[in-house]
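Annotated sample (chain length 193).
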Amino acid sequence: MISDATALILAGGDSRRMGQDKPTLLLDRETLLTRVAGSMQALFPEVLVSVRSQRPDLPWKQVCDADQGAGPLAGVLVGLAAAQTPWLFVLACDMPFISLPLVEMLAASRGNYQAVVPVVGGYPQPLAGFYARSALADLQHFAAGGGRSLRDSLAQLRVNLVDETALRPHDPLLRSFFDLDTPQDVEAALKRG
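Output written by the structure step:
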C-alpha cells in the first residue's frame, strides 16, 4: 500500500475517437473504469475519479473538472486540490494494463521531486505519473496563464523523468502505456489477451 498517495483516475474526456463513453466501455466483461479503479484500490487508500459532471452510477468519490475545456490538466488540478495525501498518482481510465510493480517503482522514485513521470519512446507519459500536492500552485499558475497541456506543464515542476530502461524490469512489454483511444485499439487489446 502506498499510504501517502491518492489515486486519481481521469474519466472526464469526451471519447471522440472511441465513439462511445470510455469509462463504461467493456473489456473482458468489465468496464475500463472498474478495471482501472480495482487495480488502484490494491495500492492506494483512496481512489478519486475525475469527471466532467457527477455520475450517480459510480461508487468512488468524484471530483468535477472546473474548466471543461482544459483536458487532463483540469482533472489533475481538481484532484490535487481534493487529495488528503501529499501525493497523487494520476492514471487515465483508458490505460487498463497498468503494472502495479511499475507504479510501486515510480512511488519509490519520488524523492524531493514535484512529479515523477515515465518516459516511453522518448515521450513523457504524464497520464501515468505521480504529482505532489506542493505542485498545485505551480500548475494553477500555468493554467491561469493559458496553459492547457499537462505535458507542457511539466516544465514548471521539478520532475523525475523515469526512462523506459528503468520501467522494463517492472513491465517488460510496457503494456502499462497501451491506451485505448479507438475501437481498433480495443480489438488489438483483446487479441493480445
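Annotation: Residues 8 and 90 are 5 Å apart (CA to CA).
Annotation: The first strand starts at residue 5 and ends at 10.
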